[in-house]
Amino acid sequence: MNVARFPRDGRALIGKTIGDTAEVTAPGGGKAYEITGVKFK
């Protein structure tokens, strides 16, 4: 996921580590993301 394009999703990742799940409430319904890795460009 490119967090620059989805700021609401990116905010949900703050403070999370690999193996955590981030839950996001969006107008179209909730989403959950499992963090499997981090890549910096």
Mean pLDDT: 80
Q: Largest beta sheet: what is the strand line-up?
A: 1-2
How much β-strand is present in the residues? 25-35%
Q: Spans of 5+ residues with little confidence (pLDDT < 50)? A: none
The total strand number stands at 2
Q: Rg to the nearest angstrom? A: 10 Å
Q: Main β-sheet, in a few words?
A: 2 strands, antiparallel
**What is the domain total for the residues?**
1
N-end to C-end Cα span: 13 Å
Describe the structure.
This protein has 41 residues and is an alpha+beta fold. It has one domain. Helices cover 15% and strands 29% of the residues. Strands 1-2 form a two-stranded antiparallel ribbon. The longest helix has 6 residues, at 7-12. It starts with 6 loop residues before the first helix and ends in a 7-residue tail after the last strand. The model has no long low-confidence stretch (mean pLDDT 80).
Write the layout of secondary structure elements.
Elements: H1 7-12, E1 21-26, E2 29-34
Antiparallel strand pairs: 1-2
In short:
This protein has one helix spanning 7-12; strands spanning 21-26, 29-34.
Features of the shown structure:
single chain, 41 residues, alpha+beta, two-stranded antiparallel sheet, 2 strands, globular
